[in-house]
Design goal:
Blueprint (H helix, E strand, L loop, with lengths): L20 H16 L11 H12 L4 H19 L9 H32 L3 H23 L12 H4 L9 H25 L10 H12 L6 E12 L14 H10 L9 E3 L13 H14 L3 E9 L2 E10 L2 E8 L13 H4 L4 H6 L12 E4 L2 E7 L6 H9 L4 E6 L9 H16 L3 E5 L4 E4 L5 E5 L5 E11 L3 H37 L9
Parallel strand pairs: 1-2, 2-3, 7-8, 8-9
Antiparallel strand pairs: 1-12, 3-4, 4-5, 6-7, 9-10, 10-11
Helix pairs in contact: 1-2, 1-3, 2-7, 3-4, 4-5, 4-15, 5-7, 5-15, 7-8, 7-14, 7-15, 13-15
Length: 529
């Protein structure tokens, strides 16, 4: 690579933006809207590539405020559509607030990418710098933005990651090696390499296409990391389609009754566990003796333990909990949802936010406490990994389950508050990607759908459509062994994310040192006027 130097034309001044702001601004909006189509319900996974390419082109050569504007427009176009489901019941205020926050963070992190494009060619103008180092830095900064958005504030909101958009495409299996952050990095890396290849006229010298070709081959050809088969578990899963939404009108016990009715066809069937979704029990069975008796009786009749979910109260604290129930009552450990939804299941800093939207904040009466227990429960000797609803979008919950020996995952969720939107399909995409990432089968069960039994390769074994009461009964494969994504996933996130910031700082320092050295160098004799 270093033996193929750039020509004088290749080294043309790159301080100027590639596109005038009058063109870059509307194109950034187009890029954001293109990226939306890569996610469910459309799920056109290839569209992530032109969306990322177009976004990067609009940032090349930008200075601070124009980069902020371009990033803001891209983020607003993407998140305002991708997160439209948040306006389903509470109206436009939560949707606007969340979309605006995500857009502002995107705008802030557009600046480092623009700086990378301005600085890196100054200290590494050769082929390796342009076609490898610069794209790697850009991809790392993009991945860092995803991580910040997914962790701050109040635990963040890891929605809209590039990696999860690829669940239906040929790149998905790479997630078993490097996790979703690693997959995001590689997709953006490929796009950034392609942009630079065109910019330096690489099509005239095919050797320059080697880096992007290698990345593309890795994305397409790398198979999923193999985990070890360990038998199977016969799982019954019931989607009651009851009135489980926060604002649904319902009588006492209506959701429980819906789950019982949908479970009736499974009576007499052979199974190892009967799974119910988040909120499938609308009273606390640990304190309500009548509800506890109903669950004990059902467990006896199906001759299998029940894995249920309910709101439980311990002292003054409320938890969103997964519980194992048998004919003898509750058994085993309790898993409490680690990531209650801010402004949905609790209000952080309520006293501060309430004056801004008192009516909306007042609707959120309950305050769920985050759980701390290991996300694994033993079901007759089988380790079951757990995640409740939005837990599934947080890497640490799923990875901790695998580390603790989970042989299968059961994700309990309640999408009733988002009926009529594509939220359930977007969340389901996360569940499918978790199966690939960990090499484990997943039973993703909702109160109202869409529910699926997902094989370790991400394919669908069985399914219940939206707004339908029904059940699934399947022999679900068990797996052991950890994928590289689980083992090195935390390190990958640190290296790609914070390593990119360290790299940008180093590049900036080098540019500054070089500029000062050039100022101190006397001009050659004879050049004066």
């Amino acid at each position: 690579m270093s033996a193929v130097p750039l020509t004088p034309t290749d080294r043309a001044d790159r301080a100027a933006p590639l596109l005038r702001l009058a063109y870059a601004a509307p194109l950034s909006v187009v890029a954001g809207l293109l990226l939306v189509t890569a996610y469910p319900a459309l799920a056109w996974w290839p569209m992530a590539v032109p969306a990322v390419v177009l976004t990067l082109i609009t940032l090349i050569g930008r200075r601070f405020w124009s980069a902020v504007l371009v990033g803001l427009l891209f983020g607003a176009a993407f998140f305002s559509v991708n997160l439209l489901f948040t306006a389903r019941y509470l109206g436009p205020v939560p949707w606007i607030a969340l979309s605006a926050l995500e857009s502002l963070l995107t705008a802030v992190f557009a600046v480092p990418i623009a700086l990378a494009y301005r600085w890196m060619p100054k200290i590494a103008p050769g082929t390796v710098g342009r076609l490898v180092l610069l794209p790697a830095l850009v991809a790392g900064l993009w991945t860092l933005r995803e991580q910040i958005v997914g962790s701050w504030p109040y635990g963040g909101f890891p929605w809209g990651r590039i990696g999860v958009s690829q669940v239906n495409g040929p790149f998905a299996e790479v997630a078993s090696w490097v996790g979703m952050s690693g997959l995001s990095f590689l997709v953006v890396l490929m796009c950034a390499m392609g942009v630079e290849l065109v910019r330096v006229g690489g099509l005239r010298r095919l050797v320059r296409a080697v880096p992007v070709t290698v990345v593309l081959v890795v994305l397409v050809a790398l198979p999923a990391f193999p985990t070890t088969a360990a038998g199977s578990m016969r799982v019954g899963a019931v989607q009651g389609n009851g009135p489980a939404g926060y604002f649904d009108q319902r009588a006492r016990g209506a959701v429980l009754d819906s789950q019982l009715a949908a479970s009736a066809p499974l009576l007499g069937e052979d199974m190892d566990v009967l799974l119910w979704p988040e909120g499938g029990v609308d009273s606390d069975p640990t304190s309500n003796s009548a509800t506890a008796a109903v669950l004990r009786d059902l467990s006896r009749r199906v001759d299998a333990p029940l894995l249920i979910s309910a709101v439980t109260e311990r002292g003054s604290e409320l938890f969103n909990s997964s519980l194992l129930w048998t004919p003898d009552g509750q058994t085993g450990s309790t898993y409490d949802k680690r990531n209650p939804v801010p402004f949905g299941e609790y209000v952080p800093d309520r006293a501060f936010w309430e004056p801004f939207a008192p009516d909306l904040i007042g609707l959120i009466g309950r305050e769920y406490t985050p759980g701390t227990a290991s996300p694994v429960i033993d079901v007759d000797g089988i380790s079951v990994g757990l995640a409740i609803c939005f837990d599934v979008i947080y890497d640490d919950v799923v990875w901790d389950g695998a580390d603790a020996g989970a042989q299968i995952y059961m994700f309990q969720t309640n999408n009733a508050d988002f009926r009529g939107t594509d939220e359930n399909l977007q969340q389901l995409a996360f569940a499918r990607m978790r199966a690939i990432e960990t090499g484990r089968a997943v039973v993703n069960l909702s109160t109202v759908g869409t529910s699926q039994v997902i094989a370790p390769d991400g394919s669908t074994v069985d399914e219940l459509p939206i707004d339908t009461a029904g059940h699934m009964l399947a022999d679900v494969p068990l797996r052991t062994g950890l994928t590289p994504a689980v083992i090195i996933g935390p390190a990958v996130k640190i290296v790609l994310g914070w390593g990119s910031i360290a790299g940008l700082v180093a590049v900036g320092v080098a540019v500054l040192i070089r500029a000062r050295a050039q100022k101190k160098t006397p001009a050659p004799e004879g050049t004066g006027v």
